């Protein structure tokens, strides 16, 4: 995970360049004037709760949804006039698998390659390469409907690579997968980045964003509310560690709120949750020791490093957005 500064003045040959980008639907402004640069060869992430504007932004970048206003350039081209040329050079892995379940694994890739005008021999060679890359060679003749969720996801990624794209857009690439399948997908995406493919992804998994992205933006209500590498964002918006304290509740209504004043000066910030207190601090163990010195006895404690999830929830809130 690199620590690249979000310095737009130094971006040369950007794969994506957006300035004041806006998208409206029937009077509702889903994207409200954002600036984004994606550098060649990096992995870039869009994070945000539901309704933040991530998908609307990705559809504009994929040159399938027109820009309402602002400037957008993809691979140096204007999607308003160069849409077909852009789509020929990018790959798109949608959130939902849209595979043809009646066809075999191999034929799903073969038919897709033919859509790009590739010759039969070229497609066959490319399909063999991709099946090997996503570790599905032994399933080449199997029908898609019999594949596991992880296999279908890897096949969808393989399909998005048929045209050897310079830029790969991934919308929630591991949603619904078990931990083992997620890590296989992560490893494949890391290999793509090593090969020079620029990755742009949305994800709800904070550990995925920390693992895969060099830089990211956090979006909320159509705006970019933070930008930087995962490490930068943690440094800027959280503390080094978090101490979690759980206390027994003596009577109804006597929640953790009653204890905030007794620990508030021990941390840079205290967050009250229904079942615990979060103390954001530079040294969690030292903070815990001071809690005990004050005669407080939590029934359970945990000290952990601050994460991107702490940043995300601080910037966008804990309220569920439907």
UniProtKB/TrEMBL annotation:
One GO cellular component term: plasma membrane
GO biological process: response to antibiotic
Key words of the record: Antibiotic resistance, ATP-binding, Cell membrane, Membrane, Nucleotide-binding, Translocase, Transport
Compartments in which it is found: Cell membrane
PROSITE patterns: ABC_TRANSPORTER_1, ABC_TRANSPORTER_2
Chief place of localization: membrane
Domain of life: Bacteria
Membrane topology note: Peripheral membrane protein
Transmembrane segments annotated in the record for this chain: none
Domain ABC transporter: 16-246
Gene3D superfamilies given in the database record: P-loop containing nucleotide triphosphate hydrolases
InterPro entries: AAA+_ATPase, ABC_transporter-like_ATP-bd, ABC_transporter-like_CS, ABC_transporter_ATP-binding, P-loop_NTPase
Protein's name according to its UniProt entry: Lipooligosaccharide transport system ATP-binding protein
MF term (GO), any: ATP hydrolysis activity
Family statement drawn from the similarity comment of this UniProt entry: Belongs to the ABC transporter superfamily.
């Amino acid at each position: 995970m690199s620590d690249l500064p979000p310095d737009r003045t130094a971006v040369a040959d950007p794969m994506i360049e957006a300035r004041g980008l806006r998208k409206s639907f029937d009077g509702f402004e889903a994207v409200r004037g954002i600036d984004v640069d994606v550098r060649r060869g990096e992995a870039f992430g869009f994070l945000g709760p539901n309704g933040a504007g991530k998908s609307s932004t990705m559809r504009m970048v994929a040159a399938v949804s027109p820009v309402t206003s602002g400037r957008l350039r993809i691979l140096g081209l204007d999607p308003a006039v160069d849409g077909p040329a852009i789509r020929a050079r990018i790959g798109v892995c949608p959130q939902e698998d849209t595979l043809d379940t009646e066809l075999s694994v191999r034929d799903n890739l073969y038919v897709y390659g033919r859509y790009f005008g590739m010759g039969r021999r070229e497609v066959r060679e490319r399909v063999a390469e991709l099946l090997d890359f996503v570790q599905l060679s032994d399933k080449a003749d199997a029908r898609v409907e019999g594949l596991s969720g992880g296999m279908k996801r890897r096949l969808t990624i393989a399909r998005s690579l048929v045209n050897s794209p310079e830029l790969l857009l991934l919308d929630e690439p591991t949603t619904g997968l078990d931990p083992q399948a997620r890590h296989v997908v992560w490893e494949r995406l890391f290999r793509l980045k090593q090969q020079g493919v620029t990755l742009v992804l949305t994800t709800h998994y904070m550990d995925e964003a920390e693992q895969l992205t060099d830089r990211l933006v956090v979006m909320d209500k159509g705006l970019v509310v933070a930008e930087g590498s995962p490490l930068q964002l943690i440094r800027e918006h959280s503390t080094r560690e978090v101490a979690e304290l759980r206390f027994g509740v003596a009577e109804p209504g006597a929640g953790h709120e009653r204890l905030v004043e007794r620990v508030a000066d021990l941390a840079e910030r205290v967050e009250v949750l229904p079942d615990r207190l979060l103390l954001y601090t530079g040294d969690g163990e030292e903070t815990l020791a001071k809690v005990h010195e004050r005669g407080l006895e939590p029934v359970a404690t945990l000290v952990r490093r601050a994460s991107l999830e702490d940043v995300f929830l601080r910037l966008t809130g804990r309220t569920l957005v439907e």
